[in-house]
Fold this protein.
Amino acid sequence: MSATLTYQGSAAILTLDRPAAMNALNTEMIRRIGELIDEVSASNANSLIIVGAGNRAFCAGADVNGILGRTTEEQKAFAQKGQSTFAKLDCLAIPSIAVISGVAFGGGLELAMACTFRVAMPAARLALPEIKLGLIPAYGGTQRLPRLIGQARAMDLIATGRIVGADEAERIGLVHRLVEEGDPVTSGLKFAGELGNPPPAALSQARKAVAEALDLVQSKGFAFEAELFASATETVDATEGITAFLEKRRPDFRGQ
């Protein structure tokens, strides 16, 4: 299997499972990742943790075998398939967490950037090295990276293809947190546990508002935020959350 899905409690664990190839992405693997994200979306999981099999890589990037010889339209379709697959994470109602152990290069980093959160182990190395092949990132890297770390830093990493260590990645905001060396799944579960159990509707509204923050002028951003807030107040979970707060008890969110 190129990727597998298991569950531990309420968490879904998606494992990139080509350790001999450092979990490099090929066409079959991207298709499978998309199927598994759809499966998680239809499940009762409250978080998705993505890890790489083996101890060398989260994901070494796209498998470059086969790139040469494609027509222009085939190359475009190749890029769009990866983009649309990773974009499924944007629509996922629950938080997704990439746990980066070893390398996350090219498409592997692009997959991690599509997640809600990224945590990295001390020895992790991250890069978008496509420029060294005469290419550019194709799975959303040129669009997501500036939104995460700013245009200047993004241009530095994309134009040089240089490798960023875990400490620098945290400092510039490419990853949210560094975690201790160890089992990636355990680290992901611990991070998910620290998130608590955010109500899916409110989390979705928050993610939409933050995503639009860089694309809207501030006045329109405020208006969009107000609309999303009003929509959130109409959910069952909002009523439960407010009631539980007033009654000094733990809320029982249902995702409604």
Residues 9 and 108 are 26 Å apart (CA to CA). The mean pLDDT is 89. The chain has two domains: 3-195, 200-246.
